[in-house]
Amino acid sequence: MSQSQQQQAQVLTGNLGYPRIGAGREWKKALESFWAGRIDEPTLHQELTTLRLQDLKKQQTQQLDLIPVGDFSYYDHILDVSAMFGVVPERFNHTGGPVSVSTYYAMARGNDQATACEMTKWLNTNYHYIVPEIHNDTAFALLENKPLAAYREAKQELGLEGKPVVVGPYSYVRFAKGYDAERFAEIVTRLVPVYAQLLSELQAEGVQWVQIDEPALTLAVSSEDEALLQQVYAALAQAAPELKLLLQTYFESVEAYPVVTALPVAGIGLDLVHGYEGNLASLREHGFPQDKWLGAGVIDGRNIWRADLAETAKLLEQVAEFAAEGKLIIQPSCSLLHVPVTAAQESALDPVLRNALAFANEKLEEIATLGTLLSGGAKQADQAAAVAEATRRVEASTEAVRLLSESESRTRLSGSPAGVYADEQLLRSASFQERRELQQQKWSLPLLPTTTIGSFPQTADVRKARALFRKGEWNAEQYDAYVREQIQEWITIQEEIGLDVLVHGEFERTDMVEFFGEKLTGFAFTKNGWVQSYGSRCVKPPVIYGDVLFNEPMTVKETAYAQTLTSKPVKGMLTGPVTILNWSFVRSDIPRSEVSYQIARAIRDEVEALEQAGIEMIQVDEPALREGLPLKGSKWDEYLQWAVESFRLATATVKPTTQVHTHMCYCEFDDIIEAISDLDADVISIETSRSHGELVGSFEQNTYDKGIGLGVYDIHSPRVPGKDEMLNMIERALQVLPADLFWVNPDCGLKTRGKAEVVDALSIMVDAARTARERV
Ligand code: GLN
Ligand code: ZN
Known about the structure:
By secondary structure, the chain is of the alpha/beta class.
């Protein structure tokens, strides 16, 4: 081989997954139009096919070697695997053959006959997947080969030699529920023939590379699992010996590294951003097998800052030492599903900030640039240009960071409350038991008080009003008047329904993080930086680039107005510091704990402003507290400590009679109950209905001793449950929780629901609570 050929073969470039929502959220619009009956199924297919091909074309223009196909989805890629393997719960009456679009969406969203499948967060991200329901005796069959179809389509339509992507059997079963834990290995083994068939069909088609995602390999892997993995991957290698399997891990470093890297696959993908320390330590300790490709995930797939390409190139050179000549793949750290599509549209941002941003498309450019940089002499001319380009960009983003951090001095930043916040109060002035009595006297609520989580429907009308205001067609007075009308209407509705603790409805808020970010300093907002959260729901995380400081009261006006309309208590509604942090893109050069304390201090100013305005029930939502938990148990304590301290920093200074509520959704609480209890909130409301009551058990075992509202119905489905169903939920909970600490509420905010269904569901809920009261 000549010198130049050899060097040309030095590196491959690849992507692991691309956002499916489209640069203008075309995907969301198509799905929602279909659900609303505005477009028919052929039109849905047509629109999604156009989008899918456009996305692939965009990746093709970067000339990456390994472009993923089959990562696109009509809702969620885990649900796709379930549909593909016939893992359809009986209640959906699926009778064989490929799963229809209507059954697929019924599993995702529920319908009149059947409740939706459970949905939960994908590892430590804010992406939610549909949890597969696998029973001990579930029979698996390959009903359709989705990666194969995606590969064919890309080849036919674009001449693209795609890399089909599928979630691997080990992770798929680990992230499923419904089977007995001791049957795990047996179930995975039963899935092997189905995966084998899928892969051998890909091989027969002439596919070269297949990406098998096994993120569960970054979680604890038992020794039985190690043996299982060896069997499974030996069988898959045997079924499709010609295929190059890239076993892809992400979000953390690989556990059982020697076992995983010895599996009979062609390549191993490692996250060198979020798993940087652990993976690098493993590479140093154990080396890397010389017969395998090393997928080096060096571009951050979870954050939006431009990479310092000179630094990244250095890291790559370091990592390349471990891989055999010509066996390095430059990749993002994970699928780009978790970042927005393109920063190119962000013309309204300060150019300094915009220059520092890299969304999916820009990250692909970075990977291509790194590929050229590292491929040596073969592409001399390209390389020179790439170096110049990379240098320009690095300088631009370094400059940006410098300018931005100087633009507002970080005077209040400190390592922990023990530092600058040392004199701030982290403990309430009375214990929960003392507060409880005082609060009972003050509020005299009935047993099993009823309330909601905060938001009421953000109807088209509400959104239109805000758009008019933002465009300047309405002045602040007109908009405020409109919001007041909404508040008034819903206070009346809540009184008529008979709820005990009311809310103002959050009509003035677009989003629970954006709303606060816009009023605090240190935040910037993109126009189109959307990321998929669950189903068609997308979020637009703000960018925290500077000091976070309180300017003026943010929620007092609306909340205090609502309180003037009723003699029932109106609960103030704030977003907690840890959630604001976890649902924002945060600078990677400042510790997250510092940013969290800063936000907490600002939220405390708001808590105090509400209290001064006579709002003495205040809910500080922390739905994202659990999701920020590191994947590795060894890192939990540190996170939980600053997360809990942040919440307390935000809430501890109120009077003992002031009732602090918090709310969390979508998580497993078992392992963090102690931390939740340490928040010292007087009442917590949590999601339970969509995990079908399992949470009740975890609170029973852990004897949580503060006020608690377990969501008695699932607000994520348009289905209105009957009274018996809700009563059943309440009574099941009362078997394990003391009635005098129990609250009755829906499992999350109601902003995505329609007015009629909300009124129906809440009326049934209040009725169920009344019946339950009579029975205790
Ligand atoms: N108060 C918020 C609402 O009701 C809580 C939302 C959430 O938990 N995600 O919308
Ligand atoms: Zn919620």
